[in-house]
Amino acid sequence: MVLLIVFLGLAATAAAAPLLASWLGRAAGWPLAGAFAALTAIAATQVPDVLAGRPTEFAWAWIPSVDAAFRLRLDGIGLLFTMLVLGIGALIMAYCARYFAPESSQSRFYTLMGIFAVAMLGLVLADDLLLLFVFWELTSICSFFLIGGAGDKAVRPAMRALVLTAGGGLALLAAVALVSVHAGTTRLSAILADLSWAGDGWVGPAVALLVIIAATTKSAQVPFHFWLPGAMAASTPVSAYLHAAAMVKAGIYLLMRFTPAFHDLVMWNAILVTAGLATAIYGALLAFRQNDLKSLAAYSTVSQLGYLVAIIGVGTEYALAAAAVHTLAHALFKATLFMMVGVIDHQAGTRDLRRLGGLRAAMPVSAVVTGVAALSTAGIPPLLGFYSKEKIFAGFVDAGGPAWAGPVFGVLAVVAAVLTFGYSARFWFGVFGGPLSERTDVREASAAYLLSPAVTGTAGVVLGFGVATLAPYASRVVADAGFPGHEVDIHLVPTGLTIDVVMSLVAIALGIALHLGRGRVDAVLDRVRAPFTGDGVFDRLLDGSIRAGHGTGGLTRTFSPAAHLPAAIVLLGALAVAALWGGTPVAPPMDGLTRPSDWLVVACVAVGVLAAAVVTSRIAAVVLLGVVGALMGIWFLLLGAVDVALTQLVVEVLTVVVMVLVLRRLPLRFHPTGVARRGLAAVLALGAGALTAVGTLALTNRRELSAVSEWLMTNSYEETGGVNVVNTILVDFRALDTLGEVTVVGLAALGIVALLDTTRLTGIPPSEFSLGTGPEENVDDNAIVVRTVARIMAPAIVLLSLYMLFRGHNDHGGGFIGALVAGAGLALAHVAAANPRKSPIRALPYVPIIAGGLMIALVTGLLGYLDGGFLRPLHLDVGSLHLSSAVVFDVGVYLIVVGAVIAALHRMSIAPLLERDTMAHTPKEERPPDDEDEDTESPMVAATSGGRDAEEGEL
Amino acid sequence: MSAAILAGVLVAGGVYLILQRGLIRMALGLILLGHAANVVLLASGGLYRREASVIEQIAAVRAAADPLPQAFVLTAIVITFGVTVYLVALAGSGSGDDTEEST
């Protein structure tokens, strides 16, 4: 329960961050720090239990079917990292309250830091692999935004960080999948307690490799190290948190967590020790060469992480104790150093070592705090960094394995330590030692600003003196990270002049020599230049892959849709031919399939389709399509599909109306197509048609009614109170499908609105009306009959549509059909109007109608939860009247479809942008003075048709 | 047999039209392909039962047409309408084969 309180407390803190930041500005850091500190204290109440080997747990069912749950667990390893995430987090929040400019808005920053902390805490507490993965990715995403938030120069580094760490995340996902499949659970503690899955042939090594990839990308190990120094483009508090307690420590955490499974796997040891030591030395070497303090600190992190990875790779009890203590030591001194970089940069105006120096008198407190952290980094007794590094030396020397391993590891570790000493000294002496630099007005920072680094720095000293108190914690981590059931007792205080103490002293001595001779060393290093950089290689790979993707896409990138289609058609046809070739046994066809009247419809359709394919007039093609559609309606009627036939007939009417609205703006004739193209199209068309016919013949009409349909028909009345089974399927049994479908329809309508808001319908006038002066010119008079009819019929049709809507459950009709009928009525009223701007439908707010319909459908669906599930209809009997909420759902369907029809009619008739363009940009095309209505959408109409009436007439 | 021929004719017409120039003819072709799909769907329910599937009495189940494909087809028709209208709007708003006079 405590875990849930801590986790939810941190989540609530993150949620409150934007509010606090908008009220308090940068000072929001103080209350946030307070919250972090309080949560640290709450988590600390679990220390006795954890130390006694009784991990605190919490579980909340999440996806029971795959045994995934929101499981949190606090053991020794979790405790170490939880304390870092919360404790260092509190100090960095406090630091932020002074770091940022007083009046700046830091909402985004505090929010992201809050989420980042939540992700890290979730990661180190997660006892479920899926949960672990989700939080792992969340840390990558948060750090991407935190790095990228620093401005344009940070875009590229943020990209690199994201691509690399998300790539590592994919490896982790693969590992999670493998482990959970082979272990049969996603519960991390259970997986690590029973390691039978790891002994399963290739699974163990594969998972080990994937975990290594995930951890080394996250923790910036060679060759993935380069994203971390780039990430310092972020603001200093971000860097401090990222380097000391979060993000990069996630990789270390993962390695420690999986140590029980892999510590005796040679591949695990070999890869981690090699990569780790290489990173330790390479990172230290690069840190030594930096002039920018922040770069120096960043490469120092790379190097120290290398130490940690290598020592975890050694995998002995002693090595793990060293890793645990060094994780803590590194968090403390690195947080201090980064925060001090921010302080120095702020006070002295630069963080370039070449322009700094001699500030020890001006900034005495800073000098001491920085000095303490640098000494800890360099591994000078009695600071914590000395003890942890000494443990690491000891861990390497006793690495086990071949005889040469211990000495070689030891020597390499000392080399890295010497360089570490070198850059630590360079850091401190470069800023505070030597003669005073150009700036003479540098003053000490305020106490509030120095508070956080002072605390972390002091902690390094205190824990150095009191290092023995850490022993039980280290023992616990060791017990949890590799040797469950074993209580190991580790003495942190060196007992005498052992080999590791000697190594420490040698490293210090050589480090002093390196510092004294740094001029000569610098000269040598300056001549050595790596032939390539990680950034460069990565960028080339990234750009290359983007170019390759672009090239691949270019093969099919064309503006002509027809260029894509033959390939798809031919491939589909080839599949069909292959299936025919292979042959599939089919049942004999049922009797009574075809009636003579069917053939009549088929023949008429064939004539219509053939004509539609060959005509060159657009209007003729649309009319022919309308005929075919009407024939389809008759066909459906012949099949007894009455609801489908009704739908088809009304849709056909509406399609023709909408098409004509647009077609009258387009040229009369289609563009001619070349003979070769027509020939190819005809061949493909005949082939596809023949295959369709054969396939349909072979695969339909060969079985009895399906069990589902039988069930639906026998149970429709009892289950839904409706007898029109088609409608009950739509609004009741399969209402979720319907909801999706009407959403598509609504979106298509909104798409039209959006499309015609940004572009516009083309303004070519209806050329049919442009000749002569006969009666057909006068649209107003011409339409008198239809207008008179529409005045009576349109309202009647809309009323009829309501009737059809409400009777749908029990007779032919329903939301779809009702809406289409209403649409047809509105279309009649619309086309009869002399002017689309006087059309009766002009005032109907189609977007709210669509949105309202969708809301009704959704709310009805949600009400279903009262009776067991989304979209489950509620029933109510009032006397003999049976009411079902499915009818209300159908009302939602009705509104969406009606709204879509209105949107189409409205937008296809009126091009608002065109009007605005005309008014705003082409004043010479002014409206005629006698123009009482607002129809100016197409001034050319007046010019070409020679009359006001023709101009107003829209059909 | 009649359903198979009908679907074949519609697919042939549809494929021919979508391979022509201009979005309008593509839209017309898609309408035909939509019809063809609807025919196949209804045929999958079986053409030997042709009574309307309004089931007042259980005895009517024997002769009633399969309602499930009908429900699919009904929504498919409406969606095809939405897609067609969208395509037509695209055809009418851009510039290209559809909106320019052929020369």
Automatic annotation (TrEMBL), chain A:
Annotated localization: Cell membrane; Membrane
Acidic residues bias spans: 928-937
Record-annotated NADH:quinone oxidoreductase/Mrp antiporter transmembrane domain positions: 126-402
Spans through the membrane: 77-97, 109-126, 132-150, 162-183, 195-214, 226-246, 266-288, 295-314, 320-344, 365-384, 404-429, 450-475, 495-517, 565-587, 599-615, 622-639, 645-663, 675-699, 742-763, 784-806, 812-834, 846-866, 886-906
Signal peptide, first to last residue: none
Chief location: membrane
MrpA C-terminal/MbhE domain sequence ranges: 677-760
GO terms assigned for molecular function: antiporter activity
InterPro entries noted in UniProt: CPA3_Na-H_Antiporter_A, MnhB, MrpA_C/MbhD, MrpA_C/MbhE, ND/Mrp_TM, Proton_antipo_N
Protein name: DUF4040 family protein
Species this protein is from: Halostreptopolyspora alba
From TrEMBL, chain B:
Organism: Halostreptopolyspora alba
Family the entry assigns: Belongs to the CPA3 antiporters (TC 2.A.63) subunit C family.
GO cellular component, one term: plasma membrane
Name of this chain's protein: Cation:proton antiporter
Keyword Transmembrane: yes
InterPro entries: CPA3_antiporter_subunitC (IPR050601), NUOK/Mnh_C1-like (IPR039428)
Membrane topology: Multi-pass membrane protein
One Pfam match: Oxidored_q2
Localisation: Cell membrane
Main subcellular location of this protein, as a coarse class: membrane
UniProt entry keywords in alphabetical sequence: Cell membrane, Membrane, Transmembrane, Transmembrane helix
Membrane spanning residue stretches: 27-48, 68-89
